[in-house]
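Two proteins were folded this term; both appear here.
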Amino acid sequence: PPYPNPTRGAVHLRFQLPSKGRYRLAVLNSLGQVAALFEKEVPGLGWEEVVWEGPEGGGLYFVRLLWTDGRRSVFSTQSFLRLE
């Protein structure tokens, strides 16, 4: 899950990937607009962490993660609160 939550500064987005593949991580504001987008090819099983400092103001944000290896896909959505 995103941490710290709530936050006034950077938020850490840490997640575990099941195997080799590609992930796409989007940070969305409460209107569904993309505030940040991260994509990466990963060599195998393991933990990934993205730190988002974001120029956006305070509010409720959603983190959408999509991982795929071409045969399987994993989708996850979580939220965090950013204070001004």
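Next, the second protein.
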Amino acid sequence: MEHDHAIALQLWTIRDAMASDADEALRRVKAAGFRAVEVAPPPPGLTPGRLAECLSRYELAVVSIHGDLPIPTNIDRLTRDARAFRCPKVVWHGWPRDPRFDSLAGVHALASACNQAGVIARDHGLRFGLHNHWWEFEPVEGELPARLLHGLLHPDIS
């Protein structure tokens, strides 16, 4: 499902409130005026299905799902989560910092892995993107990894 929302709250920013009382946290998100969220991995004890129910109760759309890099061993789970949240956009959280950011060769290898993940995602009806962090903007061998990734990633990857 496509959404046209100017801004969405990343649920990672309220992870402590979500762990304490997800229903109340989402009620407050809605009361604050948000209409959409980006789903982060839910806290222990909160399944994606239960989280999807809470989001639906407060009419909060999901614009993307933060998760692992789509690979053959987890794509079925990511696809199930995408269906539960009615959102085809999976974003690799990229946390913790991947050691491939230590060298240009590593950044090239990471871009290749991300391009492969993008193919896997597309083959399962999903769109794939990357969440950026500060380390993509720290020079590696005189180059910015963010700039390299921009040139190396398939145009469908956002």
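The radius of gyration is 16 Å. The chain has one domain: 9-152. These notes refer to the second protein only.
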